[in-house]
Amino acid sequence: MIHVEIPRFGYKPGDFKATPFSFELSRIGVQSAGSRSFAHRHSYYHVLWLIRGDGVHVIDFEEFTLKPPSVFFIAPHQVHFWNSGAPADGYIFKFSVDFFQRLTTSSKAFLELPFASTSGDPVIYIGESEQDRFEPALQQLLEECSASQAWRSDMITAMLQSILLRLLRVQSAGQSSEEVSCDGKIARGFGKLLDSHLLSTREVDDYARMLSVSPGALNEALKRSRGRTALQLMSERLLLEAKRRLLFSSAPVGEVGEELGFNDPAYFARFFRKGTGMSPLKFRQSYQR
């Protein structure tokens, strides 16, 4: 069998990668032909803002319904694909890692954006009336990106910041500012710790200690901001890592399990089957041809 290569999309030679101002906005249909129905990944931050269309968007093997107007946030190197059964319309934002870091330096609020941590849902669903209020700002930003006027980069940055902050308000509707700030900070910290410590410890007490909170406070913050407990998020993150290694390496299934801390191949198989409904080998074969 031949492993399917996951395409990686980076910056094209000569475009915004080569400039200090690494941001691009385009209209769906002009550049993307409506959808990418094959699995791929990007080397940059990617925002898909759909205002028309239907179907599904799969991000790191998790399926999300396209319910426009909706805004999807894809972090660098996440595998995703989407397909709309009806004609799609909307916007695509692209910005480099450096550009995103500059945004978060200007305001910590941008760390609350869904792609700032892979532990949260990567989509914000907005209502039709809310989209009507966003549309003039999106059109103005698109026009500014196409122009070559004085202070262009400063103007684009200011307009983008305003749009993103308004999206965060939609995301946090119904929550107090204290809940958003405290819970979001704990959840972001937990997500970062999972990225660096998941293979060395899976004890909730260890993560709580590193975050200087009690295990109970950690779980409550995660349930409010992510809808899951620490153990559930650890299992999801471990399952995602298992899927990636099964697809993107040729290591035997038993070796993949051992790398992830499963010394018993049967236990790894049970864990994987519980999360996916199939064995690790069947999962790998389903992505092969």
Mean pLDDT: 84
Shape: globular
The CATH architecture assignment of the largest domain turns out to be Sandwich
The total count of helices amounts to 10
Spatial strand sequence of the major β-sheet: 1-3-8-5-6
Radius of gyration: 20 Å
Determine the structural class based on helices, strands and strand pairing.
alpha+beta
Question: What portion of residues is helical?
Answer: 40-55%
Strand content: 15-25%
CATH superfamily of the largest domain: Regulatory protein AraC
* Helix-strand topology string: EEEEEEEEEHEHHHHHHHHH
How many structurally independent domains?
A: 3
What about the largest sheet? 5 strands, mixed
* N- and C-termini, Cα separation: 6 Å
CATH class of the largest domain: Mainly Beta
| Number of strand elements | 10
What's the multimeric state? single chain
CATH topology of the largest domain: Jelly Rolls
Runs in which pLDDT lies below 50 for 5 or more consecutive residues are 1-5, 11-20, 30-34
